[in-house]
Amino acid sequence: MQSTVLILGARGRFGLAAARAFADAGWRDLARTFVAVAQRRATLNPFEVLHFAGSTISRRQWLRALTPVAQEQGWVQAEGAVKVRHLPWALLRLGSWVVATWGALAEMAYLWERPHSLDNAKLRKLIDKEPHTPLEAAARQALVDLGLIQPETTAQNPLTPHNAVTT
């Protein structure tokens, strides 16, 4: 069986960590955060800046989260590894003349070149705990949202309300 090539839109070092909010799971966490902040809006100054930290992860961590799913789906052999290739950034820049989204992606390439994270200390002081979906659950949910895998029906979905982080 052939290994599937997983294209990670990354530049720079493999272990470089950057802030991310993932597809549906991250947006759910962000939505919960918005609700918690809105409930406390009377305590905020006008134009208050609050950073949602999301997850700060590297491509290596992404790969560790996605490889078991790829193996479960038969995209790679049971003990096989997912191959990593870089996104063709030069092609994105060239194609941006035709596809505006590619240009927007190319403009954000620096976010993959510099380690960064968002300081959510003010947010945590306001709402106590920032909602956070574990990486493995967020990665799996992102693949479900993209239609690449089916939702888990036998095991409990880690994103169901029974264990959702509440504020």
- Shape verdict: globular
Strand fraction equals: 5-15%
Mean pLDDT over all positions? 79
Q: Would you count the extended β strands for me?
A: 4
Neighbour order of strands in the largest sheet: 1-4
Spatial gap, N to C terminus: 46 Å
- Measured as a percent range, the helix fraction is 25-40%
Characterize the largest beta sheet: strand count, sense, and whether it forms a barrel. 2 strands, parallel
Please give a quick description of this structure.
This protein is mainly alpha-helical. It has 6 helices and 4 strands, in the order ββαβαβαααα.
Note down, in words, how this protein is organized.
The chain has a domain at 5-87 and 115-142. It is built from six helices and four strands. It is 39% helix and 10% strand. The protein has 167 residues and is mainly alpha-helical. It is globular and about 55 Å long. The strands form two sheets. Strands 1-4 form a two-stranded parallel sheet. The protein has a two-stranded antiparallel sheet with strand order 2-3. Residues 154-167 have low confidence and may be disordered.
